[in-house]
Amino acid sequence: MKMARTLACAATIGIAPSVADAEERDGPGLDVQVAYTMDVFFVDPGAGKSSTDYLDNLDLIADADLERIAGWRGARAHLYGLVNLGGRPNDRAGTLQGINNIEVSRQAARLFEAWLEQDIGPRTSVLAGLYDLNSEFYANDAAGLLIAPAFGIGTELSATGPNGPSIFPSTALAIRVNQTIGKTGYARAALFNANARTLGDRRGIDTAFRDGALAIAEGGIEGRHKLALGLWRYTKRQDDVLLGNAAPRKAQGAYVLAETPVVEREDGLSLRLFLRAGISDGKTTPFRGGWQAGLLATHVLPTRPDSALTFGANEVWLSRGYRAQMAADGLRPARAERAFELSYSDTLATWLTVQPDVQWIIRPGGERDRSSAWVAGLRTTLAF
């Protein structure tokens, strides 16, 4: 499923290969992947002019087993480059959480990830470098095909920090420790530069750490079932979202996530359920929390083993300070923005995947008086 997320989600989530992945890989120890994703999205904002936008994303990924290549026991290297072009359909939709997980605010070629991972004994590994937080934290495999960004990482966390946390499209320098516990248990923790900038961004990689760091920890069980709890906090106080309030605030939050199979048939049909929720301090981010839930059905057509149908629902709760700021600007704020997504994916050839997608956003922008927005799109992925 990790590979499916890379190709179908087009780099919303970067992949950190496990020790078992490296051991099972045949060949000289170098795995290179190229994926090109093209999206055509139609937006009906409910009020105003509709539009059609084209977006694209190029993934260039290389994973190296350094033990096989150079005799460096228990070590792996990972390089991940991105090129993002195209339009910005959310400018028309006007949602708080976005509608497309390859949309960027500035077109650029970026170094998304560049890290080394070293095993320390059979159960512990340490990773250092440019690293995508959402590759291992706050992530559900069953949500991997959904295109709305809220299903990649909770919005109450993705909207934090000087430039957002270390997620698509800009990562930060980080160190991560992962510990397996028993057969299915795990605990992992990471420390990220709070200023997420990488090669390709203006001013490049930030090495000064003047904005402090983002600390995050997650633990639970994963495998056939997943249940986890995560905690995060910035080491340096952040600005209050309410303009005029100059007092910096502690920026922190927590989340829970769960995933389980509900149908597993011998003919290949599988149905997995995911559910997660997160909360924040509600002062340093426009959002005090939210939830996401959905179902992923795979092998839904008997003659199409790669056919998958997925449905997701999400809601983000606006913080009191953000609603007060909206009211001061003459808007009638709602308490939440809610959205639904239905998407079908199928592999037509070993190198070609297509995915039609429909989204419905209720009270986009958190505005009580706005009509619902509709989004329809087609994602095409070429993978080699």
Automatic annotation (TrEMBL):
<dbReference type="GO" id="GO:0015288">
    <property type="term" value="F:porin activity"/>
</dbReference>
<dbReference type="InterPro" id="IPR007049">
    <property type="entry name" value="Carb-sel_porin_OprB"/>
</dbReference>
<dbReference type="GO" id="GO:0008643">
    <property type="term" value="P:carbohydrate transport"/>
</dbReference>
<dbReference type="Pfam" id="PF04966">
    <property type="entry name" value="OprB"/>
</dbReference>
<comment type="similarity">
    <text>Belongs to the OprB family.</text>
</comment>
<protein>
    <submittedName>
        <fullName>Porin</fullName>
    </submittedName>
</protein>
<dbReference type="InterPro" id="IPR038673">
    <property type="entry name" value="OprB_sf"/>
</dbReference>
<dbReference type="InterPro" id="IPR052932">
    <property type="entry name" value="OprB_Porin"/>
</dbReference>
<dbReference type="GO" id="GO:0016020">
    <property type="term" value="C:membrane"/>
</dbReference>
